[in-house]
What we know:
16% of the residues lie in helices and 38% in strands. It is of the alpha+beta class and 105 residues long. Strand 8 and strand 9 (67-73) form a beta hairpin.
Amino acid sequence: MLGPKGFVFATPEERYVVIAFDAGEYMWSKIEVYPMFAWLHASNKFKVAPNAITYIGDIRVNVLDRRFSLKVSDREHAMREYLASTYPEYVKSMPIVKMLAELRL
Length: 105
């Protein structure tokens, strides 16, 4: 997915991607599953809270017969467990704020 910090590469095995952002409103611009891609509209937004870990949801990308579908699910409990085991210093020093992303093609 192409976003404000460039491309975010993810593999099917990855559960979570953690990226540092300045506080503010962002949007995804493009999704690419080579050799296909789709430009996303301005309704694909998420907000990053200041001085916090912002959970934008579990984003699932499905590709079937050259078509994309995007879905945001709220699996906050699993994300908290992942962060506690992988980034304990962040969890201890910052609150977690939930601001689920809006994703539409």
